[in-house]
Amino acid sequence: MSKLEGKVAVVTGASKGIGAGIAKALARDGAAVVVNYASSKAGADAVVAAIVSGGGRAVAVRGDVSKAADAQGLIEAAVTHFGRLDVLVNNSGIYEFAAIEALTEDHYRRQFDINVLGLLLTTQAAAKHLGEGGSIVNISSAITHVHTPAAAVYAGTKGAVNAISGVLANELAPRKIRVNVVSPGFVVTEGAQTAGVVGSDMEASLVAQTPLGRAGQPDDIAGVVAFLASDDARWLTGEVITASGGIR
Question: What is the E.C. number (predicted)?
Answer without folding.
Answer: 1.1.1.47
